[in-house]
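Sorry, any thoughts here?
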Amino acid sequence: MAINLDGNWTSGKAFDLHTVSSTHLGTDESGHDRFDNTRSEMGELVYQLKYKGDKSKVQQIVTLLDDIKGIEGFDFIIPIPPTKKNRPVQPVELIAEALGARRKVAVVKGALTNSGSEELKGITDPIARKELLDEALELDTSQGKFKGRKVLLIDDLYRSGSTLRVATDLLYKQGEAAQVSVLTMTKTRSNR
């Protein structure tokens, strides 16, 4: 079930919702909300890869993406850079590499970098998110490789779209890309 994503990009899709249901169980002793989540198939695969470090899920994720047509028409796939750089498994990079290999599209890791260290999950103000991202995200334009080219940005989870919007702006304005599209594995049911 592909979900259209609106933004400053040419086209955008999320493969599926991340969760199909979520029941609030209360708060734990640390004051954190706890939920009983039922994830979509893609949502569970992304969860197992990202939070459990199960790299065997990458091929299953990429196989599900066979339903998304047209990826072969891009010149480059660029993974959105991680905020948690010390995470042992970087899911977006692994998915991008496997997808690029399967669809025969060049993957440019490191084209976008994130110098920020703050997780955006807890920041609900869209203006504050954008300001943080404007400071943190950078595009390597040293080789001019994106000028006039078609680029597909890949991310694991679409929440508010802030990161993808800033990355798209960088690719259009600094990278002079002809077309920027986005593909995420999942989308949250709310845009917090």
User: Anything to note?
Assistant: The CA atoms of residues 18 and 105 lie 26 Å apart.
